[in-house]
Amino acid sequence: MLRLSCSAMAALAMTASLAPPADAQDLSGTLTIFSDMSNPAPRAVMEGMAERFDAMHPDLEVELTIIDREAYKTQIRNFLSANPPDVANWYAANRMAPYVGAGLFEDVSDLWAEPEISENLASTKSALTLDGKQWGVPYTYYQWGVYYREDIYEELGLDEPQDWAAFKSNCQAILDSGRKCFTIGTKFLWTAGGWFDYINLRTHGYDFHMQLTQGEVEWTDDRVRETFANWRELIDMGAYVDNHQSYSWQEALPFMVNGEAAAYLMGNFAAAPMREAGLGDDQLDFYQFPAINPDVELAEDAPTDTFHIPAGADNKEAAREFLRFVVSAENQTEINSGDALGQLPVNAQSSVDDDEMLKQGFEMLSSNSPGGIAQFFDRDAPAEMAAIAMEGFQEFMVFPDNLDDILGRLEQARQRIYQ
Amino acid sequence: MTTATLPDTHADRGPGWFRRNRRTLAPWLFLAPGVVFFLFYVVFPVFQSFQISFYRWDGLSDPQYVGLANYRELATDRAFEVSVWNNFKWLLLYLLAIPGGLFIALFLNQTVTGIRVYKSLFFFPFVISQVVVGLVFTWFYDPTFGLLNTMLQGIGFGPVNVLGDPTLATYGIIAAGLWPQVAYCMILFLTGLNAVDPEQVEAARLDGARGVRMLWYIILPQLRPATFIAFVVTIIGALRSFDLISIMTNGGPFGSTRVLSFYMFEKALSEYGFRMGYGAAIAVVLFLIMLCFIAYFLWSMWRQEQGR
Question: Domain spanning A2-141+304-361 has what CATH number?
Answer without folding.
Answer: 3.40.190.10
